[in-house]
Design a protein that fits this description.
There is one protein chain. By secondary structure, this protein is α/β, with parallel strands linked by helices. The protein folds into 3 domains: about 20-180, Rossmann fold; about 185-255, Helicase, Ruva Protein, domain 3; about 265-340, Arc Repressor Mutant, subunit A (Orthogonal Bundle), CATH 1.10.10. The chain has 15 helices and 9 strands. β4 (about 135-140) and β5 (about 145-150) form a beta hairpin. It is globular and about 70 Å long. The relative contact order is 0.10. Mean pLDDT is about 90; it is low at about 1-10. The protein binds adenosine-5'-diphosphate. Adenosine-5'-diphosphate binds next to α1, α3 and α9.
């Protein structure tokens, strides 16, 4: 049996494979996020007019909403080379120095999970972003001295799921803009799912109400839609079924995904708050301990979706399950609950 860490790793590899296969390579294929796209077009066009690399850009929002894809599209649109790394991969100041000094003029550097950069590394990044220089300290103690290296002009595109963890000096250096990705509408998800199915290939066409069913359970998130499309296609193939609403229903029930798109871990979080903590308020740490889920996963993946659906509220005192959550999970909502909380 796989350990939880192995399971996470396997899922990740599956995600990586699907992401790269289905990632849009043209703006026209990138559905939704209209405001961000409009702003980026202006930014990129203006930089092109000045014959300079675009300014540094930060994208934030829950996983799977298209941040990495935007970075790829920017590189593609500007015809520039992109180097990809991530916050946890840059452990030491020397790692970042080596990445920066190996950039070619005009390169795009994409740093995913930038909130996980350590403070010392972050401080090297400030002058690099601001004035294109690298400050290196040589030696130790009183004889230590700083030398400054000029870096080739570059654009940093960064992504984070946890904007609140970014220091304000770092945030303020994204002079090109800080953009929040929004959840997608059902119509947008349907368009994405349709395209994905045509790339993944199947002998059957997806019936319209089946597509709707997938969209409804996709957490308003393209990566989830792609994952579900793949699972449904596999299920239909193995059981020799058409891609109907009924097949979608059966395939997703087998995965433990309910009609609101909640996974078993989403339901466990809600059930724990309702059952063990009288619906809340209860702190994140306590929920994590009681459900044996990681705090970061609850905060980055579970909560944004539950909040978006109106099943959970985040208050100053902690997380609270709403009446809609009680109804969805089949618990009786205590009549005196609202008055108790006043
Ligand atoms: P993030 O970096 O926010 O976690 P990604 O950019 O890796 O998300 O997106 C995951 C996958 O979802 C992509 O490979 C792509 O197939 C799909 N995707 C994301 N955003 C869009 C979009 N706007 N239009 C079409 N497909 C998208």
């Amino acid at each position: 049996m796989s350990s939880p860490t192995q399971k996470k790793q396997e899922k990740r590899e599956d995600d990586i494979f699907l992401d790269s296969k289905l990632r849009p390579s043209k703006w026209a294929e990138y559905i939704g996020q209209k405001q961000i796209k409009d702003n980026l077009h202006i930014l990129l066009e203006a930089a092109r007019g000045r014959n300079q690399p675009p300014e540094h850009i930060l994208f934030y929002g829950p996983p799977g909403l298209g941040k990495t894809t935007l970075a790829h599209l920017i590189a593609h649109e500007t015809g520039r080379q992109m180097k990809v790394t991530s916050g946890p991969a840059i452990e030491k100041v020397g790692d970042l120095a080596s990445i920066l000094t190996n950039l070619s003029p005009g390169d795009i550097l994409f740093i995913d999970e930038i909130h996980r950069l350590n403070k010392m590394v972050e401080e090297i990044l400030y002058p690099a972003m601001e004035s294109g220089s690298l400050d290196i300290i040589i030696g130790k103690g009183p004889s230590a001295r700083t030398i400054q290296l000029d870096l080739p002009p570059f654009t940093l595109v960064a992504a984070t799921t946890r904007i609140a963890l970014l220091s304000s000096p770092l945030r303020s250096r994204f002079s090109g803009g800080v953009f929040r990705l929004e959840f997608y509408t059902d119509e947008e998800i349907k368009e994405i799912a349709r395209r994905s199915l045509s790339i993944l290939g199947t002998e059957h066409t997806l019936e319209d109400d089946a597509l709707e069913e997938i969209a409804r359970r996709s957490r308003f998130t393209p990566r989830t839609a792609n994952y579900l499309i793949k699972r449904v296609r596999d299920f239909a193939q193995v059981h020799k079924k058409s891609l109907s609403k009924k097949t979608v229903h059966e395939a997703l029930s087998l995965l433990g995904i309910d009609e609101l798109g909640l996974s078993s871990s989403d339901r466990k979080v809600l059930e724990t708050i309702i059952d063990k903590f009288d619906g809340g308020p209860v702190g994140l740490k306590t929920i994590a301990a009681a459900t044996a889920e990681e705090e970061a996963t609850i905060e980055e993946v579970t909560e944004p979706y539950l909040i978006q659906l109106g099943l959970l509220e985040r208050t100053a005192k902690g997380r609270v399950a709403t009446q809609k959550a009680y109804d969805h999970l089949g618990f009786d909502y205590p009549e005196n609950k609202d008055s108790n909380e006043c």
